[in-house]
Amino acid sequence: MKILVLIGNVPDTTTKVKFNADKTAFDTNGVQWIINPWDELALTRALELKEAAGSTIESIFVANVGRSETEGTLRKALAVGADEAIRVDTDPKDAFYVASQLAQVAKGFDLIFAGIEASDYNGAAVGGMLAELLGIQSVSAVSGIQIESGNLKISREIDGGSQTLAMNLPLLAIVQKGIAKEPRIPAMRGIMMARSKKLTVVAPMEVETLTSIVTFESPAPKAACKMVAEDQARELIRLLHEEAKVL
Amino acid sequence: MSVLVYTENWDGKFKKVSFELASYAAKLAAEMGVSVSAISLGPVEDSELAKLADYGVGRVLSASCKDYNSLDNQAIATAVAAAAKHVNASVVILAQSNLGKAIAPRLSVKLKAGLVSGVQGLPVSLSPFTVKKMVFTGKAFANTTIHTAIKVITLAPNSFGVIENKVQEAIEKFDAGLTEADFTTKIESTNKVTGKVLLNDADIVVSAGRGMKASENWGPIEELATLLGAGLACSRPVSDEGWRSHGEHVGQTGKIISPNLYFAFGISGAIQHLGGVSSSKCIVAINKDKDAPIFEAADYGIVGDVFKVLPQLIEAVKESKS
Ligand SMILES: Cc1cc2nc3c(=O)[nH]c(=O)nc-3n(C[C@H](O)[C@H](O)[C@H](O)COP(=O)(O)OP(=O)(O)OC[C@H]3O[C@@H](n4cnc5c(N)ncnc54)[C@H](O)[C@@H]3O)c2cc1C
Q1: Is B291 on the interface with A (CB under 8 A)?
Q2: What is this structure's pTM?
Q3: For A123-133, how does the pLDDT look when each residue is reduced to its tens digit (9 = 90+)?
């Protein structure tokens, strides 16, 4: 069995988000890049499955659509334990564009992991689009995955509860929190080994984008917090009722 | 041309978000000068389907086959795409819910329609079709244009509201042409959250963090939530510790919610936490540390001990109700 984990390259979660002067582009100056948090959990789970007793997983590939600057992020995925990496050499223009680029390298995998969204554009789209382009089944909001004597057991969150599913391969699992406990951190040995692992660069296909960002806006500045004394719970309820009108 | 809305149900009853979606679709269709219809999948009684007419969507296509209850992503996307073709939809609207997020991308590819997810309110412009969405987990918004003839959007819950607007109902049976073999998602067990307000549907959310110290201290949090008819949420370490279920975790790596009122008890207000809640209309923070960053995001605050404040708040809510 072959697994592919999609790897998004996103700004560190503590980044102060700034834009250029006419607010048409994200200012990447001084930004630290990380593996999209859900993709990191997906990779961790894929590695656990591969290491499990009786596993039939031969290899775990990681793939990213991005320019050479994103190779650091892919190398980190290799350092954590992925076997090979693929980078489609182009800017990730929109979700459909990215999914279409990935579709050309994602064929032949039995199980594909995508994160439920990327923490930059919060598109929640690439995984589902890729499944549709490949014509394979997808399950979203996956919070657990088990392989029991070759059978795939998936836990997913639904709006109002959770479910356990029996699924067939090939499958694209769109994962969220819970899939792995803690993301794996690369060890020194892994970092050394990553240098010699294969990273294939693939030329992009001609694909049209379907959407484009025209301008960015920052949230409206917030008024100062109104403080209420510790023993004035009744006053707080009154304010929420009469002033904020939310009760 | 028309606007189509996919109204999700839960056990045959529409969720609140479906009525918000219907209200939104009706308004958008009116602005565009086109008709509006809804697609409902799975068994839902006519009396329930008719409720959409209270929010401006009279024409409802209903595919009542129970197989849809498996929430099979491929099958549901196929059915919604068939409905979109049937009504010649130029805009298809879904909820930014677990299910909506699963279906919208597949639908986008099927219909060759650009997708924007997590849309806030009505489009900023109809031509070109431009909508506002949250990006960088609440740290900014992006006005995004969809270039294709058909557009797919998912609406952020609570970003528009539920608006009554009674129209004549017209319910039609709809067959998307699927057979049993098209449903390959096999459910082995379901664990339903019963008797509780769904977090994404909740107008009020009561949330608590590590300041609660231990899972056995959640009694008053639950009591307050019940009194207010509120949903329950928590910070990430709380669900990591297993004090509460993952379903309650809000923030950058959890759920993103935007209730009218968000209570944060013993939550420091880390940037990753705020990402999931900052679009709440009103945030109330209770924290013993006056310098906790949560107070920068909050509208109302109490510097104090949660264990002292909670019982008083519960009393005050009870008083205000009587
Ligand atoms: C990649 C990444 C993603 C993350 N995603 C998320 C996410 O999605 N959601 C999330 O929540 N976090 C997330 N985090 C974690 C985040 O950084 C914080 O660690 C977390 O939000 C802190 O949770 P907390 O506020 O409950 O706990 P703490 O930071 O420990 O805060 C507890 C607070 O309770 C107060 N307190 C203690 N006792 C009392 C008392 N008796 N009365 C009143 N107040 C009291 C303290 O003053 C303190 O402010 C993420 C982190 C990373 C690195």
Answers
A1: no
A2: 0.93
A3: 999 999 999 99
